[in-house]
Amino acid sequence: MGEALSGRQIEIVWPALDITVTAELDDRNEALADALWDALPYRSLQGHALIAGHHLYHVAPVPSLLHLPASYRVDRREVPDGTVFCSQLQHLGIKYGTLTEPMAASPIGRVRSAELKDLVEAGHAVWDAVYKTKEPLLAEVRRAGQPGGHRIPRLIAADGTTDALIRDLHAETELIWLSAPAELAGLHQGRIPSGAGSFDTVLPTLLFANGETRPLGYASYGGLVRAAVAGMPLDSLRLMARLLVATPAEFLGYCGLEKLWAFTQRFLSCLDHIDRSDLLAVANHMALYVNCLGGWNLHLFPWETGDHLRQVREPEAVGRP
């Protein structure tokens, strides 16, 4: 499949690093590229892949990324460095070197070849921030030549109780989007009101919280949105919601994310009297909020604690055919 250019260019800026790269959007996944383009400009906490290799990604405040289908998929490992992707995990990603994870991905464009060196510099700096220094690095994505800025879309529900929940979710998401959530920061500093953590340990609680937060946003709420868009019967959606989100959210509340558990209880209490449109709106906002928490959790987690553990590389056999 060709990579016909759309004539639309985006700039990805890391202000703290004084690095800007320009990417040209193409026609391989036009619906995804359109959704991103229409959402610009925005800012987000920049993350880095932790097991896949040389890959940058951040949560994009674009609700439709959760469900828009991709018309063209690739193996991330096999495409050129500088390829830009959008995913149903609500991510904007950029490959800048070797990747090991065999994941199908949806390309939307590519960074200019002349700027790949700058992209690599940004990638290494972000890795240091995520793995060692914990200094948050923000990315700004904007239309090339246009002013920057930031906004998080606010969806509307017809039901008053549900719309009030969306209003509060939107306000909390805006509050924590570019600044670490107080509850998560406290958890990573060892302040755990419930006492979660056997024998006063902290690292196991951090590990379990991270392990529950990511699938809650990516799979549970993202799955609810995709199922609603695909036409799953409303009664089935309600049952699916209760089965998927209640237990992990209650556990995360015990671990210290009490606001998440409170929002979840309000979400569950709305289910029986809302229609598909309202369910879709509130599930979109829950997904964005939880994915934002997940991004901060990955940034704050003390990955360097395991720096003494390194992979064992078996020597290649001499003369192996």
Q: What is the average per-residue confidence, as pLDDT, rounded to a whole number?
A: 95
Q: How far apart are the first and last residues' alpha carbons, in Å?
A: 35 Å
Structural class: alpha+beta
The major sheet is characterized as:
10 strands, antiparallel
Task: Categorize the overall geometry.
Answer: globular
Low-confidence stretches: none
Number of domains: 2
| Secondary structure tally: strands | 10
What's the gyration radius in Å? 20 Å
Order of helices and strands: EEHEEEEEEEHEHHHHHH
Strand content: 15-25%
InterPro entries: Cucumopine_C
Pfam family, one: Cucumopine_C
Protein name: Cucumopine synthase C-terminal helical bundle domain-containing protein
Organism: Kitasatospora cystarginea
Question: Can you describe what's shown?
Answer:
Helix content is 44%, strand content 19%. The protein has 321 residues and is an alpha+beta fold. Strands 1, 2, 3, 4, 5, 6, 7, 8, 9 and 10 form a 10-stranded antiparallel beta sheet that branches. The chain folds into 2 domains: 5-143, Cyclophilin (Beta Barrel), CATH 2.40.100; 160-305, no CATH class.
Can you describe this structure in just a few lines?
This protein is α+β, with helices and mostly antiparallel strands. It has eight helices and ten strands.
List keywords for this structure.
Cucumopine_C, single chain, 321 residues, 8 helices, alpha+beta, ten-stranded antiparallel sheet, Cucumopine synthase C-terminal helical bundle domain-containing protein, Cyclophilin
Strand and helix map with partners:
Elements: E1 5-14, E2 19-26, H1 30-39, E3 42-45, E4 47-48, E5 53-59, E6 74-75, E7 83-86, E8 91-99, E9 104-111, H2 116-133, E10 138-143, H3 160-177, H4 182-188, H5 203-230, H6 234-255, H7 258-270, H8 276-300
Antiparallel strand pairs: 1-2, 1-10, 2-9, 3-10, 4-5, 5-8, 6-9, 7-8, 7-9
Helix pairs in contact: 3-7, 3-8, 5-6, 5-8, 6-7, 7-8
